[in-house]
Model the fold of this input.
Amino acid sequence: MTGLLLGALLACDRADCGDREQLRLVAADDSERAICAAVASSARERRAGLTAWPPLEADQGLLLDFPVTDQLCITTAPMPYAIDVLFLSEAGEVTSVACDRGPTDPVVCADPARQVLELPASQGCRRWLGARLHRADAPPRPDAAEPPSASPSPAEATPAPADWFRDPIPPEKAPCEAIAPVRADRSVPLRLLLDEGASQEALLNQTRRLQGFYEPYGLRFELDGPVERVSVGPLMSGAPDSPEDLLAPLGDFIEQHARAGVITVALLPALAAPGSAADRYFSELDGLTLTPALVADREGLAPLAALGAFGPVILLSQADLAHRHPGHLDLTLAHELGHALGLPHGGGSRNLMYDGPLRCAPRLTADQLAAASWP
Ligand SMILES: [Zn+2]
Done:
């Protein structure tokens, strides 16, 4: 047993945590436990939870990092094995523990908490009550981070439309599986809008990743003109329980900026105004795609139905893209483009349209490419 524990500690040497984050739990009696943790810091990642990861080993865990302190509830219903659930305060103190929770156990809640650490079930789980969590390489919290750089500096020259995709960025992680030889061989027209509160570099970075992902499928992107500067700021501020208020600014944006036959991509400083009711519900929403088909399909988007036909619009949040955990693959625009082409979520955790964190470079299937509706 000692050997196993020692092995677990050694295995958690920082370099060996790979793209997971090294955590230390320090109990009141100074005993320690080292953990290589995946960090779920976006709403999508937190929803997916442990179902997005292979079964936890003794030295592994999942840290659910929430944007605000609130009552948190955890279900273990989809879990094939038992886990210990530790609730932590904003200061990183374990304020509540629920040990050995399996699939048949009811939902467990703690009030209030900021983070939840899920660990494989172990003997003596209750001794971590009151322990402190130390994060060696935590990314800065959004509220502690510097605001996105303001209007572009004069040095930030805009590439000509023909040069915009000159240096595609391929996914930096190994493919989940070999890409089937399916090709669409198409050119897709894009129109890029850059809010004055967002940076051109971030937009360039996302669109080069987009090109890098789709290139093996024979897709080329072409700008239908230079990047257009807009001044709209965050588009959502209203309460989610009054959808008219919440969606009206999105409707205005579509009316003003969407164009038939072109996919419009807009990088905004954030999608929801910081501190607003929408921010609370849509925090860390890094991308949002609106098409007439999506509007018709989702009851919550009903207030936008009055718009009728419009060209697809992809909205990206610079603040949330910037705070994605660096261990995760950022293909947000590539995923949103899938929605703009009419693709729903699905395809499993190795597919671009998976609604959860991506750990390896995902793929699209021939069926998905065939089902796409091209602008
Ligand atoms: Zn999606």
In short: Confidence is low (pLDDT under 50) at residues 1-15, 141-155. The longest helix spans residues 200-214. Residues 335, 339, 345, 355 surround zinc ion (CB under 6 Å).
